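Let us work through a complete example step by step.
Step 1: write down the sequence.
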Amino acid sequence: MKGSTPNAIIPGFPYEGALYWFFSERGTSSYQGSHSYYLSLYGPEHDKLVPRATALVALFERLVLAPADARLPDNGSHQHGMSYNHPDLRISMSWEHKEWDEENTGIATQLLKSSGMNQLLSKIPLFASDEFIRKHFLCRTLLQMRLADLTGSVLMGDGFFHAVCDLIVRRVGNAVTALAISSQAPWIMEPKTLDLVGLTFPASNIDSFAAIRQSRQVSEYAAEFRTAAASAMGEADATNSLLAAMKKAMDQGEIQEHVSGAFQAIGSGANVGGLFPFVGTIASGIGIGADVASRALKRAGARKQWYLLGPKMQEIALKRMLSQLEK
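Step 2: predict the structure and record it as C-alpha cells.
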C-alpha cells in the first residue's frame, strides 16, 4: 500500500470493537456481560481504546464497518434493508457479506488446526481462553480483509492484527485468493503511536464525534495526514517515519510563517511610501503584492499543519460540549 492514500477505513483489531462499544452509547465503562460473542466483538480494553479509535476514524472520509449484531447510531433512520448508511457520520455497513459465511467459517476452522495460529492467538488472553472467541475473531478478520479488498479501503489494526492477517495469507493463500481477500498488509497503528502523534481525544458522545466528522478543517488536515501515514507505512519503522514527517512539516510551517511575516512587514513599510508622491504608486503596488503573497503563504502554511489534526479535533469537541452547556 506504499504511496496510496485511500479515503475509507475498515477498522480491525483492536479498534473495531472500541468503535462498536462507543456506538452502543453505554457510557465509559466496559462491557460487563459474559456473552462470548460480545466479549469477542468488543475485545479487551475496548473502553480505554475509544479515544484512539474515534480519532483514528477522523483520518478518513468514510468508515466501512464489517457487519455485526450491534447497535449503530440512528439505526431506525439509516438502516434500509441490508444496508446501513449514515451520511452525517459517513458510516456504511452492509449485511451482504456476513461474519458467519460458510467460506469464513470453513477457513477459520482450518486455521485453528494450525499450532502457529493458536500460538499467535494465545498472546491475547481473551482469545486463549475460549474456542468460540478464537473462531469468531478469525471469521471477522477474514471478513474485514475481504471487505478492504472489495471497497478499496485501508484495513487498520495494531501489530498483532497485522501478524494474524499475514499468517492467514501464508497459511491459506489459495483460499484467500479465491475469496478475493486482499493479500496486502493492513496499515499498522499501535495505540502508543496514536498517542505520540496526538490522535486521541475524549469523544464523550456521538454528538461530539459528529462535530468532528462534519468539520471541513479536520477533513483538510486529515487528507494531508493520510498522505504522510501512507508513506510511513512503507518504512521499516512506521512510527518514527511518521514522527519525522510531522517534524519536517512543523519546521516548514515555521519557515513559511517567518516569510509571511516578512512580506507583511514589507507591505506595511511600502505603504508608508505613499506619503511621498514620487514613489507613492510604486510603493502602494508593492504593498498590495506583499499582502497577497502573505495571505497565500498563510494558506499554504495551514495546509502544512496537518500534524495539528489531533489538537484540532479536541478543540472542536470542546466547542461542541461548551455550546451544549449554554443551551
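Step 3: interpret the result. The first strand starts at residue 8 and ends at 11.
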